[in-house]
Structure formats: structure tokens, C-alpha cells
Amino acid sequence: MTKEQWDAATLDVVSVNKDGEEFGIQWDVQKGSEVSTWIVTPKYKKGGMFATETGQADVTINVSAEIDGDGYGKAETVSVNIKDDKNIVDYLKCYWKHIVISLLLLILILGYVPPFKKRFARSIKKRPSIECSAEKIGLRDNVMKGNFEKDLASRLLPYVPETGRLTFSPTPVKKTAKVRASGGGSMLILNTSAFAGKEEITFNGMSIQENEKGHNRISASTIIVVSTPEFTYTCIPNVQRTANGEIKRGKRK
């Protein structure tokens, strides 16, 4: 080809994989240093290493030119192998955002799973029974309902132990313990000072000493007793009785 013909010629590159489908790669076409020559260089598809296909490719180079008013063309197919040489650093550079987001999500999810988040025992009833045993003639034994509720914020925040309130005696001697889950099915009484030195209030038969420091530990099966001249109130957080006095089984109610 003359230089004029070479300048006017066009070159197209088509590549397919072994299935005859378009091979995921791009080609850079530049004129060579000599007339009638071209340099064809493979490039990443859309500039991305991970968007580029690897493996065997059949590359067809088509040259079209006009000589003396007539169109001429020539095609040649060569087989090339695009090697996959990506390494761990390449993967980190490409997917570091995905990795960071995944790690952050994992850390967040773990914040809601024991032991990273301390939760109350599932056996604690929302309305535990309070057994009222009469201590005077003319009064009758009966069963009343206590109350257990969790603080919403402590339930929603990751890594923060659940907190709540347990009411274990009725009006007019209503007693409420502020509690915090401490793992292993136990919980801590946060307002210990409200019961310190009061012998009429016992937890598993033991009252809290007046000079006791720190938080008193109880569990869902702790027997809490409040004694008054009229009634002895007994509450076990994981016990709820039916109307006929039988212990209710199954899901928390």
C-alpha cells in the first residue's frame, strides 16, 4: 500500500471466545512506524481489570482500503491467550469498599448477638405472677400480676446491654427493680440502694445489706419476697400462673 492508501485505510478488530461470543476486552489500534503496518494492543475493558475476560480468544483483524477506486479488504485471525494474573493486592484495590462495608455490617450485626450484646433471659415473663399469701384472718390468698418491660433504646442499640424494670409486688407496696442484663441468664439490680437494709424484701431468702455496694445479681428463677403485716408477696420472674393457679407453659405472655 502506498502511504496515501495506508492513511485512508481502516482497521477493525473483532475478538470472540471459544463459544463464539464477544470476548470481554478492548483493543488499542495505532499505526506502525512503517507504511502498511499497525500495532494492535489489548486493553482492559472499560478500563477495569475485573471487567476484562481472560482465557483463549480468537482475534480477527480486518483491513479495508480503497485502491484506484476499488475497495479491497484483508482479514487475518490469530489465537491469543489472555492470562489471569490478578493477585490479592488487585482484589483489595478493587473491592476495598465492599470489604470495608461488609466488615462494618458484620461488626454491627455482632453487636446484636450474644455474648457481644447481653440480653435478658427469654424465660422472663412480661407479666410474672405475684402470689399474695394472707397473713391476717379475713384476708384471702390471691394471685396478681407483676410487670417486666425492656427499655426500647437498650434493645435497639448494638453492644449495649438490655435494661428494663421488674415490678414484683403490687400497690400499695409496689416495688420496682431497675435491672440490666449481665449474660448467662442473669441480671443486675441497678437501684440496689432502694432495697438495701430492708429485711422485709428478700432475694432467694437473702436481704440486701444496708452497707452493700455494687449491683445485686439475680436471675429469672430468683424467688423475690416482700413481707407486710397483711400479705407476703412472692414473685418469680419466669413464672406466670393461669386463673386456676397452674403455671403457664409455652411462649412468654
Walk me through this protein's architecture:
The protein is mainly beta and 253 residues long. 13% of the residues lie in helices and 38% in strands. It is rod-shaped. The mean pLDDT is 91.
Q: Roughly how many Å is the radius of gyration?
A: 40 Å
Multimeric organization: single chain
- Report the total helices: 3
- Main pleated-sheet profile: 5 strands, antiparallel
The total strand number stands at 15
List the helices and strands and how they pair.
Layout lengths: L2 H6 L1 E7 L9 E6 L6 E6 L11 E13 L2 E13 L5 H23 L18 E6 L7 E4 L1 E4 L1 H5 L6 E7 L5 E9 L2 E4 L11 E3 L12 E4 L4 E4 L3 E5 L18
Antiparallel strand pairs: 1-4, 2-3, 4-5, 6-7, 6-15, 8-9, 9-10, 10-11, 11-13, 12-14, 14-15
Defining traits:
253 residues, mainly beta, 5-stranded antiparallel β-sheet, 13% helix, rod-shaped
Quick structural gist:
With 253 residues, the chain is mostly beta strands.
